[in-house]
Amino acid sequence: MNTFVLQTDEGAYADDEITSALFQNLLDRLYRNDIDFMVLQPNQPIQESSYLQVLGAFAVEIRMLVADGSFIQYSYISDNKDEVLSIFLDYWERGELPDLNHWKDITGSLTKPTSLSIVTKIRKLLRAKRVPSQVPIDDTALDKS
Question: What pTM, to 2 d.p., does this model score?
Fold first, then answer.
C-alpha cells in the first residue's frame, strides 16, 4: 500500500494527516493565494508518476518517470477547484492518473542549459568578433528649425 507526503510552502503533512478535507482546505488557500503550491508525493511511483502538484490557482502538474532515468512533466490549467480536487482525490485514494491527453508536455521548459553550454556560447560569440552594424542617424529628422 502506498503512503504519501503532502507538501506546501508552509510545511508537510504525513500520510496519517492527509484527508479529503485537508485537500479541500489547501485548495481553498491556494485559490486565495494564502499558499503557493501543494505537492502530493507517493512513497512508490503510481503508474510511473513520482508526484502530482498544483501551483497557484490552478496549474496542475504531474511528473512521469521514464525507464532511462529521465522524466516527462505534464501541465494542465484549470479554473475549477472541484476538478482539481477530483484529480488529487483520484490520485490519492485510488492511485488513478488524470487523462493526460489534454495536458501539455512542459518538460522542455524545465531543462535548463548547463553553465558549460552558456560559457561555450559566449566564447563563440567573442571569438567571432561580430560587431553589430551601426544604425545610420537621419540628421534631417533631428533638424526641425
Answer: 0.75
At 110 the pLDDT is 83
- Across the beta sheet with 49-55, the strand order is 11-13, 4-8, 37-42, 49-55, 59-65, 71-77, 104-105
* DSSP conformation letters of 67-86: TTS-EEEEEEE-S-HHHHHH
* Residue 61 in grid coordinates: 502538474
Half-sphere exposure (Cβ direction) of 109: Cα atoms closer than 13 Å: 7
Q: Look up residue 97 and give its DSSP letter.
A: P
Contacts with 33 (C-beta within 8 Å, 6 or more apart), sequence order: 56, 57
Q: Which of 139, 37, 47 is nearest to 100 (CA)?
A: 47
C-alpha span between 86 and 90 (Å, rounded): 6
3-state secondary structure of 142: helix
Tell me whether the omega of the peptide bond preceding residue 71 falls within 30 degrees of 0, making it cis: no
Cβ atoms within 10 Å, residue 74: 20
What is the pLDDT, as a whole number, of residue 57?
Answer: 78
